[in-house]
Structure formats: structure tokens, C-alpha cells
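Now for a chain:

_____
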Amino acid sequence: MTDVPAPMYWEQRARRFAGTGAGLAAVCSYGMPGFYNRSIDLCQRLALAPWLDVAVGTTVLDIGCGVGRWSRQLARRGAIVTGIDLAPTMVAEARRRAEIERLSPLCEFHVADITTLDLNRRFSLILGITVLQHLLAPGQLDAAVQRLATHLAPGGRLVLLEAAPEQRVVRCDTAVFQARDVASYRTAFAAAGLDVEHVTGVDPAPFKTWLLPYYRHLPKPLAVASLGLATALSLPIDVTLGRRYRTRSWHKVFVLSRREH
């Protein structure tokens, strides 16, 4: 738990973890063992794969881009990507990694807040991975979704992966995270003029979410061992059945289009 303002919180995470390895500790689960964040990354990649097969020249907006792991993947496929993030260190690290991979001509990164975003451009694909679940102040979710709808080109697609159980669950909530239910997201999408085309699952195995509320209260060796077991039990289920078992999944992928009048 933390009372640090969101930009400062993400900047602190970025300064600590963004330059380490793949940077997953900065953008996945804070302060968790590497094996856990790698399992999250794998499940996310499997869930998102059908929606990230873009054509060369596709314009993409990557919100909450972090160290640019999705931006760079899309740029490698020939997309023209704009990434935004609250944390200057995240943005600097995304630029550095893109430069190392010689992707800078296809990527640009900026510090920006999605609740007030105004790029004066529209994009064929907007991608957001576990971003909206961190918008907790009243009105922030609706404001962010409205800004995303404004930036989506006619015929474009908005792909969001968020913690979204079928029913509201509070056991894993923190001062910087909330697992809203699916209905809350659907309401926000409809208010912004967005139509839900598809909803798929990501991680239906329940073992990790059972453990996480207790994880930080356990002695560290026991906590890590318990998390290792929960991850080992979860991965075969999540990898093979994640996309199919939507209603049992803790995270969902929402695929949205803009309603044109």
C-alpha cells in the first residue's frame, strides 16, 4: 500500500526496475520474483497474439508503454508506434531499448497522462495493458476511456487487457490497483461510444489470486515457495485454456471499436 501520487509511484518503480533485464518488474507485478513476472508476460503474450498481427504502416498508440515491450514488438512488424507513459524514466528506457534494436525510426515515446491525452491524431490500433486498473480517483476511468475513443480512427481497434473478474473482488486491491468487474468496464466503454467486439480470457487458474492477499505477510522463503507452487499449478491451465475460459479468468482482453454515427 502507498499514498504516493501515481506519477511519483510509477517513476519510483521505473528508477528501480526499468533498466533491469526485460524490465518486467517495472511493468508487471511490483517487487515479485522474476519467475512470476515472466509467467505474467507469457500469458499476456498468448492472450494478445491474435490482435497484434498488424500490417506494415499501421499507426499504433501504446498507452502506459512502460519500457516499450509492446511498442517494440509492433515496430518489429512494421507498425508506426507512439508510446506514452506517466513516468519519464519509463519513457527514457523505452527510447533506449528501441534505439538498441534500431527501431527508433518507427517508435516515438512521450510523457503523458491518458486522462487528459490530446495528441490531435487518430490511430488504427490503440493498445493498453493493465493501465486502467490503476486509475482509481473518481472520474478517471471514464475520462481515460473517453480520451482513448477520441484518438481511435474510424475502423480502428482498441485492445485493452485489464484485471476484470466477473464479479467485484476486493481481496487483491491496493492503493494503486483495483480489480473492477466486467460490467464496470462495459459501462465506461458504452458511455464513450465504444462497442465491445470480443472479450477473451487470460488467466483462469485461481491459485495466484488466492495466495496474493497473504503473500507479503508470510516469511519470505515461505512466500516465494508458495508463489512458486501457485505459479507452477497455474501455468498449464492458463497457457492451454486461458483464452477459452473467459468467465473464470481474472484478467480479460477487451477488443473495442468506435461507434460511428
